Task: inverse folding
């Protein structure tokens, strides 16, 4: 066992660095959450996204409580989940920085909720915000899907594994 691993069944607090390393072994998709309208439009890269319910159609994502996008989502009461394609890694990195990428630098169009949807996304969900919950150092945003799409371009998804972004093998 590596020296920084906890022993099985060890009681006590879990170190944040170790938790991040272990959770990094769970493969996730990479999304850019977009929200706001006009000059307030903004986005950030997120991999903490999941489907919650089919009836009603609900999804959620998590943002750090100090995220610059938090206020934008809360004020607009809507957001879009843009699933990124493998070739969009530079876009994912641009939106992942502390000083978020400008929506002016990303081709987009308004969704049914008025928030921007990235033009070349693998797929998207536009959601009306229905609930939030403060959990630990994050805010959980739950939204009802009101608009969605898959452009059918035969693209591979961008995935996140062990702290790195990449595409799936061609066999998938």
Result:
């Amino acid at each position: 066992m590596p020296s920084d691993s906890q022993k099985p069944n060890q009681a006590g607090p879990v170190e944040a660095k170790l938790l991040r390393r272990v959770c990094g072994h769970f493969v996730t998709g990479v999304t850019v959450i977009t929200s706001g309208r006009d000059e307030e439009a903004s986005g950030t890269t997120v991999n903490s996204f999941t489907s919650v319910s089919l009836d009603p159609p609900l999804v959620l994502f998590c943002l750090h409580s100090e995220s610059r996008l938090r206020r934008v989502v809360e004020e607009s009461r809507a957001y879009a989940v843009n699933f990124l394609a493998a070739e969009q890694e530079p876009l994912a990195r641009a939106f992942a920085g502390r000083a978020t990428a400008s929506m002016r630098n990303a081709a987009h169009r308004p969704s049914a909720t008025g928030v921007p949807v990235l033009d070349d996304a693998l797929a998207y969900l536009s959601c009306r915000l229905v609930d939030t919950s403060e959990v630990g150092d994050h805010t959980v945003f739950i939204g009802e899907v009101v608009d969605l799409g898959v452009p059918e371009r035969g693209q591979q998804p961008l995935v996140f594994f062990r702290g790195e972004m990449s595409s799936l093998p061609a066999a998938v």
Notes: The CA atoms of residues 34 and 43 lie 4 Å apart. The chain has one domain: 29-151. The two ends are 32 Å apart (CA to CA).
